Amino acid sequence: MAGRLEDIVAALATADPERESLWWKGSWIRRREFMAIAEKAAGSLAKAGFREGDRLITLLPNSPAVIALSWACWKLRGAIVPLNLQAGAPAVIRSISRVDPFAVAVPDMPGVPVSQFDALPVPVVRVSPEGDVPSFTGKRPETPDDPADPDIAVIFATSGTTGLPKAVPLSHENLLSNVRAAEEHFLPFDRSTEVILNVLPNFHALGYSTSGLLALLTGSKQALVPNFMPAEKTLEIMRATGVTFLVGVPAMLVLLLSAVDRGAEAPGTLRSVISGGDRFPTNLDERAQRIFGIGVTEGYGLTECSPVVAVNRSVEVRKLGTVGTPLPGFECRICDASGTNLPAGSEGVLWLRGPSVTKGYFRDPELTAKRFVDGWFETGDVARLDREGYVSIIDRATDVIIVGGFNVYPQEVEDVLCSCPGVKEAAVVGEPHSVSGQIVKAFVVPSGPDVTQKDLHAYCKEQLAHYKVPRSFEFVDRLPRSAMGKVLRRTLRDRQGD
């Protein structure tokens, strides 16, 4: 599929410059106004020395700045790398070592501490939420022999199943094909009348693409919300802007519904509620129908797939408990451990191929060779494909813990725990939770009698993002292991109900 993202956005603005585009802090920004912000940001980056193939890390909340800087990077034939501000400087440094950025943009906002990033080994520039970029000089890449790739639009930096940094580069074709396929596939979507709520964090592919990018490339309106909490405030914004289209993780939907049950007013304009990022509890659907007046359609995606893979096409044709049917362009295979195709209805590892799938990990040929074979991507998820084409996600082949829609990788948490004085060994698993889906539970083998749960919790809070911090600790004499010496996390998960 031909076309670059910045050209499509500019063409929409030219076609109807007075159309409302972004809602931000009480007022609508028109398309021509947004383009002026984006063009100014591009000029600032160009003056700073941004060139083809360069990469800009952003540590920004959902705001016009994220979208304007994205457009600016694309116009200059570079890429944006959105990261989580709350992950802290150590996590950013790991990402810097992988993506070799031109600069790091941090929020210039009252009450947002950013001084911890001033010591980063690349230029740090303070950007206002409205997209004002001050004068600065960027950093030239340390690997000048590495050919620039102007086709890369966004790089999502995340951890792999081992907890080690990886970077997922998505091209203009990847992202555009995914948005176009999602628009065609999801029957209720109407670009001329949709008002999309952009509240999921834009450092995550789900929020960036299914809210921000979907609106940007279809010309739909979007209501930008920097923070979801409190849920009552988000509901107020939904009512004020007439939100019709909501993509959220189950934990977010629970909080919105609970806020209405406590007395908040429900938005009366919603036409579509889509759940992704984690398994959707089907018993939540009845509450959604009672409070929002519509049922929930569940979907499934992966960052490597830009990210939407499948979604129930509408409430009328959905199958509760499934993530719907694959988007146009995706080919799916269900395979056994050896990669052999299994018949319809079988449970096995899901493999995918299509224009939305990245070609591999950024500067990581070893991991790419493991997950990408002959054009097919191994998702690592155990799934079932029925004869009507509906996909059911049975389990995660990895041990990823999903907390409120965010991935927590056991090894990262375990490494922190094991660095704590008084800890000999540690293993973490997901424990079911009524609001966030799961919380992190830690099994700890102490090296002495002095360490306490309070000590461990305080230590982890200093080292990890809040959603990664274990909420439950259990001291054990030893960890269960296989004959090969691997910790059996499944055994630990199973014993939680004992």
> Could you say which structural class the secondary elements and strand pairing correspond to?
alpha/beta
CATH topology of the largest domain: Rossmann fold
Beta percentage is: 25-35%
| CATH class descriptor name of the largest domain | Alpha Beta
Number of strands: 25
Count, helices = 13
Could you estimate the helical fraction of the residues in percent? Answer: 25-40%
Can you say what the CATH homologous superfamily of the largest domain is?
ANL, N-terminal domain
> Any guess at the CATH architecture of the largest domain?
3-Layer(aba) Sandwich
Largest β sheet strand count, sense and barrel closure? 5 strands, mixed
Poorly predicted residue ranges: none
How would you describe the shape?
Answer: globular
Q: How far is the N terminus from the C terminus?
A: 53 Å
Radius of gyration: 22 Å
Count of individual domains: 3
Task: Write the SSE topology.
Layout: H1 5-15, E1 20-24, E2 27-30, H2 31-47, E3 55-58, H3 64-75, E4 79-82, H4 89-99, E5 103-107, E6 124-127, E7 152-159, E8 165-171, H5 172-185, E9 195-198, H6 205-218, E10 221-224, H7 231-241, E11 245-248, H8 250-261, E12 272-275, H9 284-292, E13 296-301, E14 308-311, E15 325-326, E16 331-335, E17 347-353, H10 365-371, E18 372-373, E19 376-385, E20 391-396, E21 401-403, E22 406-408, H11 410-418, E23 423-433, E24 437-446, H12 453-463, E25 472-475, H13 489-494
